[in-house]
Amino acid sequence: MPRVSAEKKVEYRERLLAAAAAEFAAKGLDGARVDDISVAAGLAKGTIYNYFDSKRDVFRAVIEEWTQRIADTREPVAEDAPIEEQLLAILQADMRVTGQIEEFARTAFREVLTSPPDIVAELVPAWDPVDAEIERVVERAQKRGELRADRTPAELTRFLLTLMNGMLLEHWFPDSDIQLDDIPVLVLHYYLDGARTR
């Protein structure tokens, strides 16, 4: 049997992740079938196990790719730029990528909100790179006196993420008039209104 080149391995993994995002969006974590993901990627059944250990591992990898795409598409902003500019760049990139994979994003939120704690503990760290970048921005802003100092950077980051996730859920409600493009500015307005130094 011929060996698969490194380039082909990268290509197959990307195809598997794209197929997995669609399968999970359509059927959820429990309903998705790994053989269907392999076949949808144009590969033989079971091929997915050459790249991932389990269905949860694939799901987590799709989330990790989501966070990487956010980092890759974010407009560069100087570290000494005002906090509004830095956070807006992150939030806009997040919503841009979320819009590209919106059905999977809805599924990921549903899984985190409804899964047992052990599954949630596996999935939530996949979002850590974005959360960590926001926390670094918040910490720098606190040191410059732009944000209140009576809360830790981690707390202020969680407040921002809660607003962001709440607005995203609101966007998904029937008859909502909040668009994905509106969310970053709305979140930033409400967040900075409460988090700024007084």
What report would you give on this structure?
This protein has 198 residues and is an all-alpha fold. It folds into two domains: 52 residues, Arc Repressor Mutant, subunit A (Orthogonal Bundle); 141 residues, Orthogonal Bundle (Tetracycline Repressor, domain 2). The chain contains nine helices and no strands. Helix 1 crosses helix 3 and helix 4 runs antiparallel to helix 9. It starts with 5 loop residues before the first helix and ends with a helix. The mean pLDDT is 92.
Key attributes of the depicted protein:
elongated, single chain, Tetracycline Repressor, domain 2, mainly alpha, Arc Repressor Mutant, subunit A, 9 helices, 198 residues
Q: Order of helices and strands, N to C?
A: HHHHHHHHH
The name of the CATH architecture of the largest domain is Orthogonal Bundle
Helicity, as a percent range: over 70%
Oligomeric category: single chain
Q: Strand portion, in percent? A: under 5%
Q: Determine the structural class based on helices, strands and strand pairing.
A: mainly alpha
Alpha plus pi helix count: 9
The name of the CATH topology of the largest domain is Tetracycline Repressor, domain 2
